[in-house]
Design brief:
- The structure is a single chain.
- By secondary structure, the protein is an alpha+beta fold.
- It folds into 2 domains: about 240 residues, P-loop containing nucleotide triphosphate hydrolases (Rossmann fold); about 120 residues, OB fold (Dihydrolipoamide Acetyltransferase, E2P) (Beta Barrel).
- It contains 10 helices and 20 strands.
- Helix 3 crosses helix 4, helix 3 packs parallel to helix 5 and helix 4 packs across helix 5.
- Bound molecules: adenosine-5'-triphosphate.
- Adenosine-5'-triphosphate binds next to helix 2.
């Protein structure tokens, strides 16, 4: 496709009709083990939703239920108004990209991409046209005649993607499609996938255990643990307002400091905390301390901020930023991240020296100590 056409596709926006997905009461057991435990979720038409969770939490099982490769014990999966739970995979009209790409190594790139069209008995002229457009979308127009085993990992990933979208599926399912790529290529592909989704607009369910990838790509993230959703939110809400210790711990780095709430006042040691909203009455909570939300402050009371005092334990240099491990009076350790800018490095106390840190009330997140 020429540049002109590419621009037209970009400007014209959506080339694919998308459908909402409604998942209701899905349970899947293997013997006595419940891989999915009464899962319900609505994915809006055109939404990019990521399933994020630790290994074994049920992400792939749920994706396979959506694709039709795993039949749940009970529950319903609807695409638009159509009940799908008993439909075989080939009748669901979904595009799929898996971890290992599952390409045919003996075929050319174009042959691989044309395969789903062949299955659907699309005529030759139309098939060639669609393959050409799909190749162009993933920016591999020059490589149609190459064999799969002559491609880099990133190129193979793009072929897999082109093959998944060539028949214009209403729903796209992806299971860790970038896991085999190195960091730099993975980050490039994350942005490319995001742009492709914006252009094509199909409803997308994406599986990853990489929290940064989830934050970068998703409209919403569903955090899953032991076969249940623990929080479903937009990336920023999830990071800034985790509802449980599990979510705060899994997404981003955190230190946890015990806080007691009595008579409507949250106390961190002998200091009263300023909070964005009233705390749960008479509760035991944790203050979630994100490393980048801490600032170093000088002597005196930093008005309007929450103060945390301690001693520097060590610095860890990480290139663009460095970590500062700080031990508090009660022996608890917290970690802060600072940019390696010259003026910051010049003022940071060294190991063994006292340090005073402040956290803004808006960044002062509490999660319950006795739950999750
Ligand atoms: P990962 O990130 O490691 O891929 P996941 O979140 O995708 O993990 P699933 O593959 O969905 O996890 O597996 C969820 C649980 O179900 C795991 O404990 C797994 O061992 C179990 N499981 C999955 N498939 C089967 C099966 N066919 N038979 C028995 N147990 C299974």
């Amino acid at each position: 496709m020429a540049d002109e056409d590419r621009k037209a596709v970009a400007a014209g926006g959506r080339t694919t009709a998308s459908l909402p997905i409604t998942i209701a009461g899905i349970t899947k057991s293997y013997g006595t083990f419940r891989a999915l435990d009464d899962i319900s979720l609505d994915v809006a038409s055109g939404e990019f939703l990521t399933l994020l969770g630790p290994s074994g939490s049920g992400k792939t099982t749920l994706l396979m239920v959506l694709a039709g490769f795993v039949r749940p014990d009970c529950g319903s999966v609807r695409f638009g108004d159509d009940e799908m739970v008993l439909s075989p995979p080939h009748k669901r009209g979904v595009g799929m990209v898996f971890q290992n790409y599952a390409l045919f190594p003996h075929m050319t790139v174009a042959g691989n991409i044309a395969y789903p069209l062949k299955l659907r008995k699309v005529g030759r002229a139309e098939s060639e046209d669609r393959v050409r457009r799909a190749l162009d979308l993933v920016q591999l127009s020059e490589l149609g005649e190459r064999r799969i085993n002559q491609l880099s990992g990133g190129q193979m990933q793009r072929v897999a993607l082109a093959r998944a979208i060539v028949f214009e599926p209403r729903i796209l399912l992806m299971d860790e499609p970038l896991s085999a790529l190195d960091k730099k290529l993975r980050e490039q592909m994350q942005i490319e996938l995001r742009h492709l989704h914006e252009r094509l607009g199909m409803t997308t369910v994406y599986v990853t255990h990489d929290q940064r990838e989830a934050l970068t790509m998703s409209d919403r993230i569903a955090v899953i643990s032991d076969g249940r959703f623990v929080q479903i939110d937009r990336p920023r809400e999830l990071y800034e307002r985790p509802r449980t210790r599990f979510v705060a711990d899994f997404i981003g780095e955190s230190s946890f400091l015990p806080v007691d709430v009595a008579n409507g006042v949250a106390m961190l040691g002998d200091r009263k905390l300023l909070l964005p909203a009233p705390p749960a009455p008479d509760s035991r909570q944790y203050l979630v301390v994100r490393p980048e939300k801490l600032d170093i402050v000088g002597e005196g009371d930093p008005s309007g901020l929450n103060l945390i005092e301690g001693k520097v334990k060590e610095h860890v240099y990480q290139g663009e930023s460095f970590l500062l491990y700080v031990t508090l009076a009660d022996g608890v350790e917290i970690v802060m991240r600072q940019p390696t800018r010259r003026e910051v490095l010049a003022t940071v106390p060294g190991p063994g020296e006292p340090i005073r840190l402040a956290i803004h009330p808006e960044d002062t997140i509490l999660v319950m100590r006795d739950a999750g």
